[in-house]
Specification:
This protein has one domain. Strands 1-3-2 form a three-stranded antiparallel β-sheet. By secondary structure, it is an alpha+beta fold. The longest helix has 14 residues. 11% of the residues are buried. The protein is built from three helices and three strands. The protein starts with 11 loop residues before the first strand and ends with a helix. It is globular, with a radius of gyration of 11 Å. Strand 2 and strand 3 form a beta hairpin.
Length: 62
Amino acid sequence: MAKRNENDKCEVYFAADIQEKLGIGKTKTYEFLGDVYMQKSPFTVFKIGKLCRIPKASFDRW
């Protein structure tokens, strides 16, 4: 996995970012993001193969 640093101007969260923010495990994070992806709510999740990307603006509003 590519390492990111604080200077990167990234407009999406990665699953690991969501995991850290919510304080849940990796498995639960992917289950949660899968549910959000299917329901299209309460925020946006983009799936690229098995990867999940979450727009920061969408997640932060939630």
